[in-house]
């Protein structure tokens, strides 16, 4: 018999034998044991046999007399972990689960959004009796159940989709086809629809802005937390160094060589040694000390360029208010903070903070709660959750201790305020205000003396906060940008005109005078092209104008470009000191010491322009040397050393301004590979 005929006969015989066995056994769903021991039902399909064969090969399973697959040895565990097919099988399974979840979620949202029940259900009339209301709701439910939804109608019109092919063909349930989901339109994500977005965005009434400028300017302009010029220096100067909680735990173990400084690869914490809690605390506290030391440099830099107002970073001492990794500042940071406060007092520099601007990590075992607020407004005294309030109190105590350790003079100490937002409304503004009153009463006197409220762009307007500020004697910060997004339409319009009228501006100023604190305001602008309220919340890199505030105001400019936004205003309105600020030289820092030449080459050789390394014989005969940089170009050497106190200060020509969109000028130019130029072929 020919070979092909024998093969066909054997295949037919095996097929008939398999069918007879299947017919003899009772029908039951095939079950496979996971490695955890749980059973998973597999639907019968053409791809089932192939899937089981792959699993048996990869995971080391063997079938019993009933055709069920069992795990039987630890050796198969290791083989599954090492086998490429096993990894791919797991990846494909996770991808399938993710795809199913996405489609199911989208389908469920479409069912709710497109259901006739949601369209036909009307709110009950208070004049109706309970019986009439119940009857109406029952009839609406029956109508919604009897009428097919749009999604069901689409599914009935579609032809049956082909079964998926591949390894997971047997595991794929019946899913809504992608085409059907796409035909249903956009998913309702809770955002305003197109009409509402246009009404609140581009179609909203134009803002009414004041044409008054606070000139001649006699106040103080400030920026928040970070100096872009100092941050980009070769030795960065900033006050927001931080770490992860895992790093604190790792650093509880001694270094591999305690006599040497820590290195990312050569001298790491040795986890084989016993952990010591104080080592982890020392690690995170050293970060805080480095942050605090840089305050002095930032204050001196600000004073040189006419800036007398700055917000300190809440990340200065990482995890200081954390329930597990938190710590007090007085035992180790008193001297460093007192030195910074001495410089601020000498320069008449105002320092403030904004607690809650940095999202604190969740305690172990807790999931983060997503927030709809425009910024990280997580210091909320009006929250209904006890753990949130306790965290807010710890955070306020930490900021109060940090400002108190600056040892500022009396007036500067009063002006060192802590600004927070009211936070969410939690469905009931009145109840939120009651919780705020109760929790505010339990704060320490130091926190009460510094606490200031600010209107936000999501929940609380200026008119919402003025009554509670007057009742509890809390100053109110007016944020013009937030007001333009969220305002009380019954009292004022969008823009700077109405909110700056004497009736409202005087009430705001009175909240500051009662406590003897110098008033401050916040100003920023939305990014170009922002239309919806969500888009307009983002701050623009710089601002184009100044608000109609008093000309002696302390005005905080909240912009992405930080001190450069202040320089932009100084140049635009010719404010004092604007002529002392000059543009940086692209990709060059003239206020830093240059490193010595890396390579010494000499301009001699057999050919013209050839260079080779210097030798002892060359030195003996006095060959002229030429210092070259990495690109082979000649340099002039190190030059005159720059004193430490002048490093990063802009040099003698005060070159510290970079044009909008050119922050990369602060850093050395990236090296580009030189590609050989190919001569064009002449026609």
TrEMBL record:
The keyword Magnesium does not apply. Keywords: DNA damage, DNA repair. One of its GO terms (molecular function) is endonuclease activity. GO terms for cellular component: mitochondrion; nucleus. Residues 8-24 have a biased composition (Low complexity). Residues 1-84, 105-212, 251-274, 529-549, 589-683 are annotated as: Disordered. One of its GO terms (biological process) is nucleotide-excision repair. PANTHER family: UV-DAMAGE ENDONUCLEASE. This is UV-endonuclease UvdE-domain-containing protein. It comes from Schizothecium vesticola.
């Amino acid at each position: 018999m020919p070979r092909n005929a024998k093969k066909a006969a054997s295949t037919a015989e095996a097929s008939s034998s398999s069918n007879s066995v299947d017919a003899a056994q009772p029908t039951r769903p095939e079950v496979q044991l996971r490695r955890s021991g749980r059973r998973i039902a597999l639907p019968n399909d053409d791809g089932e046999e192939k899937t089981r064969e792959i699993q048996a090969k990869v995971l080391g399973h063997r079938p019993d007399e009933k055709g069920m697959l069992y795990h039987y040895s630890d050796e198969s565990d290791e083989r599954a972990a090492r086998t490429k097919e096993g990894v791919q099988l797991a990846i494909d399974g996770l991808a399938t689960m993710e795809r199913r979840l996405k489609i199911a979620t989208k389908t469920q949202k479409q069912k709710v959004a497109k259901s006739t029940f949601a369209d036909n259900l009307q709110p009950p009339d208070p004049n109706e009796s309970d019986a009439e209301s119940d009857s109406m709701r029952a009839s609406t439910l029956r109508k919604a159940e009897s009428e097919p939804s749009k999604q069901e109608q689409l599914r009935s019109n579609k032809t049956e989709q082909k079964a998926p092919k591949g390894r997971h063909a047997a595991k794929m349930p019946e899913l809504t086809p992608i085409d059907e989901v796409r035909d249903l339109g956009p998913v309702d994500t809770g955002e305003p629809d197109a009409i509402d977005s246009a009404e609140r965005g581009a179609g909203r009434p134009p803002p009414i802005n004041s044409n008054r400028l606070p000139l001649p300017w006699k106040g103080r302009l400030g920026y928040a937390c970070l100096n872009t010029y100092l941050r980009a220096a070769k030795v960065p100067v900033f006050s927001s160094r931080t770490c992860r909680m895992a790093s604190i735990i790792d650093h509880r173990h001694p270094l591999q060589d305690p006599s040497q400084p820590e290195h990312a690869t050569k001298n790491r914490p040795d986890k084989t040694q016993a952990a010591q809690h104080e080592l982890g605390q020392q690690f995170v506290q050293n970060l805080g000390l480095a942050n605090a030391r840089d305050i002095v440099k930032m204050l001196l830099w600000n004073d040189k360029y006419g800036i007398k107002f700055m917000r300190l970073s809440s990340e200065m001492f990482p995890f200081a208010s954390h329930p597990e990794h938190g710590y007090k500042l007085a035992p180790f940071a008193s001297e460093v903070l007192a030195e910074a406060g001495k410089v601020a007092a000498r320069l008449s520099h105002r320092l403030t903070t904004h607690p809650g601007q940095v999202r604190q990590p969740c305690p172990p075992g807790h999931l983060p709660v997503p927030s709809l607020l425009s910024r990280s407004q997580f210091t909320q005294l009006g929250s209904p959750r006890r753990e949130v309030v306790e965290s807010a109190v710890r955070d306020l105590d930490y900021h109060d201790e940090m400002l108190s350790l600056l040892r500022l003079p009396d007036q500067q100490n009063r002006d060192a305020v802590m600004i927070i937002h009211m936070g969410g409304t939690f469905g009931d503004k009145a109840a939120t205000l009651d919780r705020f009153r109760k929790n505010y009463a339990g704060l320490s006197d130091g926190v009460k003396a510094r606490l200031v409220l600010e209107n936000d762009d999501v929940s609380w307007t200026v008119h919402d906060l003025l009554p509670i500020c007057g009742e509890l004697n809390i100053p109110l910060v007016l944020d013009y940008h937030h007001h333009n997004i969220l305002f009380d339409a019954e009292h004022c319009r969008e823009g700077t005109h109405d909110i700056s009228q004497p009736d409202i501006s005087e009430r705001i100023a009175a909240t500051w005078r009662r406590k003897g604190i110098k008033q401050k305001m916040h100003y920023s602008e939305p990014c170009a092209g922002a239309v919806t309220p969500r888009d307009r919340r983002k701050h623009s890199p710089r601002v184009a104008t100044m608000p109609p505030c008093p000309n002696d105001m302390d005005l905080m400019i909240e912009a992405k470009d930080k001190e450069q936004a202040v320089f932009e205003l100084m140049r635009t309105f010719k404010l004092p000191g604007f002529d002392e600020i000059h543009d940086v030289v692209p990709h060059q820092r003239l206020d830093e010491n240059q490193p010595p030449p890396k390579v010494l080459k000499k301009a001699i050789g057999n050919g013209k322009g050839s260079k080779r390394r210097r030798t002892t014989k060359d030195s003996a005969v006095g060959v002229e040397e030429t210092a070259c940089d990495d690109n082979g170009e000649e340099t002039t050497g190190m030059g005159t050393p720059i004193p430490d106190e002048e490093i990063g200060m802009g040099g003698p020509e005060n070159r510290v301004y970079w044009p909008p969109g050119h922050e990369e000028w602060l850093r050395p130019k990236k090296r580009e590979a030189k590609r050989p130029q190919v001569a064009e072929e002449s026609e």
